[in-house]
Design brief:
Blueprint: H1 2-7, H2 10-34, E1 42-47, E2 50-55, H3 57-76, H4 86-112, H5 127-147, H6 156-170, E3 178-184, H7 187-207, H8 209-224, E4 227-233, E5 236-241, E6 245-251
Antiparallel strand pairs: 1-2, 3-4, 4-5, 5-6
């Protein structure tokens, strides 16, 4: 158990295992509520004319739920090892949420599109359910990336930081020669940008793909400008918006202290 705690984020592991199972169970319960209004068998593949492949209702629910669980585990598990970079673990946790919610949306849209029909051959995937579910999956995944806080783990970056601190301790004047800082807005600001722009962009893309893509690009560019790189040395202070665009330069002679 001790070795597992040293190599795995147990809190993330519990979520990675439980969330796909609970989501699959919720899908199965909702599917059973629609059972009496569905044709037998149900369609599992469609073309422009309607259903082309069919399977029993139980096979659809168990197969779809099983695929949901396996896909979720494969993605979520990438966020569990402590040896991986923190950023990667955050991204994979958010990606796991996106993937599982998207798969659930596809499965639900397939069933809703067949509700009330006597023959699945005339059914189509419900576009509204698919659009709403897929559109919600993206911002919720981004929220997970922002909110997930991986368990701390000593990394080579920590070794480098410790060595740099040791050097600064031995030479106190060195710390005054140069300094580099990255400053960014609060995480809640980025979450609101995602919810207010990327989610509508997913819905707009259904009708106008180019406009949805343009809105998403504008949101990403705007978020980049909420990061600022500040560099200070014996020559003065420089401020770079988005890390590359210089917006302020203060010579050292103008700095009083």
């Amino acid at each position: 158990m001790g070795k597992m705690r040293d190599s795995l984020d147990l809190r993330a592991l519990r979520f990675a295992v439980a969330f796909p199972l609970l989501l699959a169970a919720a899908f199965a319960v909702c599917a059973l509520m629609l059972r009496n209004n569905l044709p037998d068998p149900v369609a599992i593949a469609w073309n422009a004319d309607g259903g082309i492949s069919f399977a029993p209702f139980l096979a659809y629910v168990l197969g779809g739920g099983g695929f949901l669980v396996v896909a979720g585990w494969l993605v979520f598990i990438q966020a569990v090892p402590l040896a991986r970079p923190v950023i990667m673990r955050r991204v994979m946790m958010g990606m796991g949420l996106m993937v599982t919610l998207f798969i659930t949306s596809v499965l639900a849209a397939g069933l809703v599109g067949q509700t009330g029909l006597a023959d699945a051959r005339s059914s189509h995937v419900d576009a509204t359910v698919l659009a709403l579910g897929a559109g919600a999956a993206l911002p919720l995944g981004v929220v997970m990336m922002m909110a997930f806080k991986p368990d701390p783990h000593w990394t080579p970056e920590d070794d480098a930081a410790l060595e740099a601190e040791r050097i600064r301790t031995e030479d106190p004047g060195l710390a005054e020669d140069s300094m580099l800082l990255w400053v960014h807005a609060r995480s809640s600001v980025f979450v609101m940008i995602c919810v207010a722009t990327l989610f509508p962009a997913m819905l707009i893309a259904i009708a106008l793909p180019w406009l949805g893509a343009l809105l998403a690009v504008v949101a990403v560019i705007g978020a980049c400008f909420l990061f600022v790189r500040v560099r200070a040395d014996r020559k003065g202070v420089q401020v770079f918006a988005a890390g590359v665009l210089r917006v302020l330069t203060v010579p050292a002679v103008d700095i009083a202290g």
